[in-house]
Amino acid sequence: MLPNPGRQSVQIPGSTIQACTTPAADQAFTALVMPTLGGTEQATFTERESAGEAVHHIIEQVAAAAIFQRAPITAIIGAYRGLDLVVRTHHLWQPDLALQSPTGHRIGDINAATASGIWQSATRLINGIANDMAGTAQRIIAHRARIATIDQELTRLATWDGQVAYDTAVAELAAIITAFAVADEAAQAGAQATAAAPATDAPGTDTTTTLHAATIAAVLALQSADDAGPALIVTIPPALASLAWMEAQRSAREPMDESPDAELNLDAREQVADLPQSIEPLRQPRTPTRDGAAGSVGASLRPPARAGAFTQLPLF
Q1: Helix or strand or coil: residue 252?
Q2: Gap between the Cα atoms of 30 and 157, Å rounded
Q3: CA 40/CA 123 separation, integer angstroms
Q4: What are the Cα distances from residue 27, in Å, to 20, 22, 178, 205, 210?
Q5: At what angle do helices 48-69 and 117-158 cross, to 10 degrees?
Q6: 154 conformational bin, left if phi > 0, alpha if psi -120 to 50, beta if neither
Q7: CB neighbour class for 32 (10 Å; exposed up to 12, middle 13-18, buried from 19)
Q8: Which pLDDT score, from 0 to 100, does residue 282 have?
Q9: Rounded Cα distance, 1 and 85, in Å
Q10: Kind and range of the H or E run holding 109
């Protein structure tokens, strides 16, 4: 099996890299392909089409062997520009062709759809090696600079400039906590001592808490006198007697009702009595019916207008 490229770094000699990345226009096409499965020598091809057909033939043989053994097979079937052509087959999957470095690093997959397209795909992968290595070199430089920065920061933080202030604050906090703990212990000890001390009577409590024999005898005598007295009897008078009593009370208060308002009422009654008796009281006219028949009847019933009399206008 091929090694896992994710766990192995690219280690290609400088001469191999230079030979692989040389432009194809400066050299003739040359490819080495194993003519048959199980062979020990590789045949040299100078034509792209014939070399591609030989690659297809050997791939078919390796795929048939994988199906026969019912197991995956990985084999090196040729070489191109200093790099190995590796075929990987499985009895359930389609085979694939890849370009691999002499150290076992997988560079990339080759498109083997056509005979001539195999070499075009391989050339594209080889030409991209230089760009990939340049990008890798730049990433390595950036990672090394990051590592150096981290190391400098770790060195600076090894001796923290605020350590002295931190230690002082911690010491002060410990002293404050200790002072509060001592005060709490003293308060608890004082409370326990107060609770354990015998209770003392307050001044004057003996005169209020002690009952003398004379006091008890006086209280019992008063209670006996209350029990021996007549019971309170509540009676409700009959209704006629209550009405008579109320009338007597009202008659007794009548002479007291002479007030300024009563005098004014008396004067008003005297003035009304002095008015001429010929003045008739104001009468309300009858309301006419809808058909107007009551109009003439109502007019005949109205009193004649007299001098000095008030006449009210009809409402309808």
Answers
A1: helix
A2: 60
A3: 26
A4: 11, 8, 89, 129, 134
A5: 70
A6: alpha
A7: middle
A8: 47
A9: 14
A10: strand 106-110
Beta bridge partner(s), residue 44: 32
Task: Write out pLDDT tens, residues 122-168.
Answer: 999 999 888 888 899 999 999 999 999 999 998 888 877 788 888 99
Q: Using the 8-state DSSP alphabet, how is residue 127 labeled?
A: H
Residue whose entry in the numeric block shows the structure tokens 């307050």: 202
pLDDT digits (tens, 9 = 90+) for 10-31: 455 555 555 555 554 556 899 9
Sign of CA dihedral 89, 92, 96, 102: negative
Q: In sequence order, what DSSP letters do the residues of 41-61 get, joined into one string?
A: SPEEE--HHHHHHHHHHHHHH
CA distances, 177 to each of 86, 165, 180, 262 (Å): 75, 18, 5, 92
Place of tokens 């001390």: 197
